[in-house]
Specification:
By secondary structure, the chain is an all-alpha fold. It has five helices and no strands. The longest helix is centred in the middle third of the chain and has 27 residues, at 30-56.
Length: 101
């Protein structure tokens, strides 16, 4: 599978991310690794933020999930167009935090 294919697959549910990670571990591709790290960061930040905001107010959690959806779309469009689009503000941290992937 190509790096672009693995990068797109990583954006399709948690199972797709796991499959893309396993495929990328067998044959490393820097483009796929970039988007595997981006999507992992989106999932982690989305999950933690959702828990925190739901404890405060459900409306905040809804707004947070819309922000995460936009981040996911930015990342998916980048993967589909063969461009390394960072998630604004926090995407560079994902590359640092998860550089082992």
């Amino acid at each position: 599978m190509s790096g672009k294919g693995k990068a797109i697959l990583a954006h399709i549910t948690l199972i797709g991310w796991i499959v893309a990670l396993i495929l990328n571990l067998q044959k490393r591709d820097s483009f796929a690794s970039y988007y595997i790290r981006q999507y992992l960061g989106i999932m982690v930040v989305g999950f933690i933020g959702n828990i925190l905001f739901m404890a405060i107010h459900n409306a905040l959690a809804t707004v947070w999930m819309i922000i995460i959806l936009v981040a996911w779309l930015i990342s998916l469009v980048g993967a589909c167009t063969d461009k390394k689009n960072e998630v604004p503000y926090i995407g560079r941290y994902f590359q640092e935090w998860f550089k082992g992937l």
